Amino acid sequence: MANVFSFKGFTPVIHESAFIHPNATVTGNVIIGKDVYVGPGAALRGDWGRIEIGDGCNIQENCTIHMFPGKTVVLEPSAHIGHGAIIHGGILKRNCLIGMNAVVMDDAIVGEESIVGALTFVPAGMDIPRRSLVVGNPAKIIKQVSDEMITWKTKGTQLYQALPGECYESLKATEPLREEEKDRPSQDSLFATWNSIKEI
């Protein structure tokens, strides 16, 4: 059972196909669409404003989504938020990717199909155009996202869009084994890192 809390009369709305990990927390005025994955340790805190999570988004482990009072955070469909990222009052357009431990600040807009690199700091009010590759602190646009790059990103997001159903089917609390089984299966290589397929 997920940690879901109402706050000042606002109860989160979560589509039945979305999966919120039991160790994630969703509070207040939060709207979550279809096939959304929210990983353990993530905090979506809609106490002072509204959070809209579009269909097919993923919010990975230890991410934080929050805002200043009266603001709305929007993740359009298929936005992909890497481990440990912070979204504070930003707007993320369709099919963008926010890298691990990146920070997107208030009133920033990350354009459709843009990629924000790991550890990047996107300052308040920055408007990142569609299909931009952004890195650094503060963030700088270094090139355009190619068709190959967005195809790679989209494939990774599709794995996360399938994950809610897989979690409902097979994730369960359990006691650990005390030794590894002799016939423990290997796991399929479903997705490759960008650098292993193409240098940026």
UniProtKB/TrEMBL annotation:
Keywords: Transferase. SUPFAM superfamilies: Trimeric LpxA-like enzymes. The keyword Transferase applies. GO terms for molecular function: transferase activity. It comes from the Bacteria. Transmembrane segments: none annotated. InterPro entries: Hexapep, Transf_Hexapept/Carb_Anhydrase, Trimer_LpxA-like_sf. This is Transferase hexapeptide repeat family protein. It comes from Cryomorpha ignava.
